[in-house]
Description:
- Helix 4 packs antiparallel against helix 6 (130-143).
- By secondary structure, the protein is mostly helical.
- It has a domain at 69-204: Tetracycline Repressor, domain 2 (Orthogonal Bundle).
- The protein is 62% helix and 0% strand.
- 34% of the residues are buried.
- The chain is built from nine helices and no strands.
Amino acid sequence: xxxxxxxxxxxxxxxxxxxxxxxxxxxxxxxxxxxxxxxxxxxxxxxxxxxxxxxxxxxxxxxxxxxxxxxxxxxxxxxxxxxxxxxxxxxxxxxxxxxxxxxxxxxxxxxxxxxxxxxxxxxxxxxxxxxxxxxxxxxxxxxxxxxxxxxxxxxxxxxxxxxxxxxxxxxxxxxxxxxxxxxxxxxxxxxxxxxxxxxxxxxxxxxxxxxxxxxxx
Length: 217
């Protein structure tokens, strides 16, 4: 699991880190609200409550900022799920719990899940954040004999699409009466990965490692 960096040691570095964090926070809010990033640097700086020129002390372009914000978001998501499932031994249960925890994070971390909803599909071929963790869990389960995995990358894209589609349902207003649940999708995916129906249903309904962390105020 990737650990957060140590805090800066002196006042100057702490101020610099705080400014960078404010810019990334503003970019994350924009990513949560829209699939596009067509917004001026001036507006970003105003939203972050920093000076226009300060932006260029940290990022060369808007694209660089939004890349950093997306990486930051997906790393936070990955660290959260890793931490919550760290004590689960069965790789199949880790997978099912990750699906179900993602649904619960729509309530506990809505900004993060909006970013996943709007930008997650485009990140499934990255080597950081969401994709490598999901691929790691799939390969661990396959190595232990729990999953049948003939094409890990294709499986990753199929599961990623299903998970992001599930998050999309959770943000519907009002939610469709037939909307799938985390448990039902986890069960379906476990069956797709080779588990018998009864076992998949049992694993998908096991108690979750809670509580989830609360969103920042």
